Amino acid sequence: MGKPHGQHHGRIRMADGALRGFGPGDLTPPFLKRRAILYVDGFNLFHALLDQRREWLWLDLQALGRGLVDPMERLVSVVWVSAHRPQGKARMEALFRYEAALRARKVRCLMGHFVVHPEHCRRCGHGWSSATEKQSDVNLALAVAADVAANRFDTAYLLTTDGDHAATARFVREGYPHKRIVSVAPPGRVHNRQIAHWTDELVGIGPSLLAQSMLPDRLKTAAGWVERPLAWSAAPSLPPPPDHPPPGPSTRPAPSLHETRAGHLTLVVSN
After folding, report:
1. What is the DSSP letter of 213?
2. H helix or E strand, kind and range, residue 47
3. Could you report the per-residue pLDDT of 187-211, keeping only the tens digit for each?
4. List of residues 6+ apart from 8 with CB closer than 8 A
5. Strand order in the sheet with 113-120
6. Neighbour tally for 236: CB within 10 Å
7. For all residues of the chain together, what is the average pLDDT?
8. Extended strands (E) in 29-188
9. Strand-pair partners of 225
10. Which residues, other chains included, contact 116 with Cβ-Cβ below 8 Å and sequence gap of 6+?
């Protein structure tokens, strides 16, 4: 049985990248530590970071996960669920870049899609198109369910404040009571009470941990170099990559990430 509704009697802590004292975790070999997986609700985290500091959007989720887990745990995987929303070219390009950077960091990226449907004003007849995100919540829930059934973790960290994931936490708590569940609130957000009801611990993310968990401004992927979007940083543009000479009169520039990944976006039009 779970705890009384609306109450949480587990630990509450803030992960802020501060130096900690020497403890048992420093003497325990990794293979003896509990296995932890971080599950990230991409949209939930994106909007929380956007409300704080735009440069924090270029976040290394592997580094963040290592800063979140308990000293007696080891991070074995990170899962990020999101979708590419049909919108302005600059933002689409930025999100494609971020997905490529996460994949280069061995993050499991589970992508949903958007359903585009028409809307109109009944008074004036003006029409427009609206987009609704699909599958992200289901992808996160299925990832947790598959991993816990396959015994891939001892602790699941759920980074979201979306109350729909209270069902995911409840599934783990009732079906696998020996597993730990930790609620992680995005920066500037409070923990969701429905999720907290089923968890063993509440963890917040401090600004120091975010600042220490940034991706490099440029990193190499299987498809080539990817750079931090200019809108996600106040830094000036970077010099050319070392193995990519600047294009000359007879050299065509390499295709952008958006061009190479354009076919990844799925748009479904509903009647």
Report:
1. T
2. helix 42-52
3. 999 999 999 999 999 999 999 999 9
4. 191, 196, 197, 199, 202
5. 127-134, 113-120, 267-269
6. 7
7. 82
8. 34-41, 73-82, 108-111, 113-120, 127-134, 155-159, 180-185
9. 220
10. 86, 129, 130, 131, 267, 268, 269, 270
Nearest by Cα to 244 from 267, 224, 217, 268: 224
Q: How far apart are CA 52 and CA 30, in angstroms?
A: 34
Residue 47, C-beta contacts closer than 8 angstroms, at least 6 positions apart:
none
- At 64, list the tokens: 């963040």
Looking at the chain, the whole-number percentage of residues with pLDDT higher than 90 is 57
Helix (H/G/I), strand (E/B), else coil: 175 = helix
C-alpha 134/C-alpha 112 separation (Å) is 6
Tokens of 246: 């600047």
Contact predicate 119/130, CB 8 Å: yes
Q: What is the DSSP letter of 217?
A: S
180 φ/ψ angles, rounded to the nearest 5 degrees: -95, 145
Compute the average pLDDT of residues 218-238.
82
Answer whether residue 159 shows pLDDT above 90.
yes
Q: Are 75 and 66 in contact (CB under 8 A)?
A: yes
Q: End-to-end CA distance of the chain, in Å? A: 44
Q: What pLDDT does 1 receive?
A: 42
Look at residue 2 in the predicted model and tell me its pLDDT.
Answer: 42
Per-residue confidence (pLDDT) for residue 26, from 0 to 100: 76
In terms of Cβ atoms closer than 10 Å to its own Cβ (0-12, 13-18, 19+), residue 108 is middle
pLDDT in tens, 101-145: 999 999 999 986 454 545 557 777 676 455 455 467 899 999 999
| Torsion over CA: 207, 154, 166, 266 (sign) | positive
**Distance of alpha carbon 87 from alpha carbon 68, whole angstroms:** 33
